[in-house]
What does this fold into?
Amino acid sequence: VAAKRLLDDTAIQVVLGSGYPEELALSNVKIVLGFLTCLSAVVAHFFPKKHPLNWYVLLFCVSFYLVGSAVLQAVASYWEQDFILFTLPKQGTFGRPGIKLSSFRDLDKYKLTIHTANPKSAFAQPDAAREWSLAQFFDGEGKLA
It folds into this structure.
């Protein structure tokens, strides 16, 4: 798992270094939703009135917490999937979509796939994938070569 994370981070740095700015909107929305979800739990716990006078606040806070957690889980499971990076288009490439990186690690293999961020774009390209043996990335001491 640590080897995959190291290879993922390296691939991300290569893509960002080639001029693709990272798409942060989804991450920011997830942070705000996670904060609000946790805040609802704090409000439910520290609301000044005692039960049963605060049942409506507890109902709202617990419901919001459940819905917020479900939305965060759905985004992670169905939208982000195995993607490790979402990018915006390069500066000066009007109309061209950004890219998405996904990776898959088997026991001894590492597969990296580049997807077009908007497959319905007129400039969309087919996915490009490559698979490597993990052993070729590391030297005898276990350091990234």
